[in-house]
Amino acid sequence: MRELEELILKKGKVLEGNILKVDSFLNQQVDCAMMKLIGNEFANYFKDKNITKVLTVESSGIAPAMFTAMDLDCDLVFARKKKSLTIEDNIYKSTVYSYTKQEMKEIMVSKDFIKENDNILLIDDFLANGQAAKAMIALCKQAGANVCGIGIVIEKSFQKGRKLLDEMDMDVYSLARIKSLSTEGIEFED
Questions:
Q1: For helices 2-11 and 32-46, what crossing angle results, to 10°?
Q2: pTM, to two decimals
Q3: Which end of the chain is more exposed for a tag (fewer CB within 10 A), N or C?
């Protein structure tokens, strides 16, 4: 998606450790016009999959997932990273390793929100090592729901996440695929 790649080049910052900082439009401040374009792009790609729910992990995936769900006319569900007083024990749980935070996190979704007959579209802000997507797939499997595809805003193609999801036979659609990144610049896949 050319508009997204241009925004990454303009506002993204490359940090040590192959980290791309995009908090000026995706991870803290949200460019709503861009999220609307992203949601529309995902919805168009997955429109024939009979999606009943969009699932993401809080918090950076919520904005693109919300616009996607709106275009698909379905509900958005997000996996929580912390259990609150309002969450009962009637939950699906999975564990995910956060590359940027360098820690294991448990994610959870109420069993009330994902059902056996749901067709789920997963949305995530980044694909690096594939651990967030793998954890969301595990939540869906616990529910007996069908994962119809995975929409990724930014993929780091030089890391192993795509290979992991391809081996799981997942339909992955990434809007910006980064071939390499360094302090000298960012190179996208063709």
A1: 150
A2: 0.95
A3: C
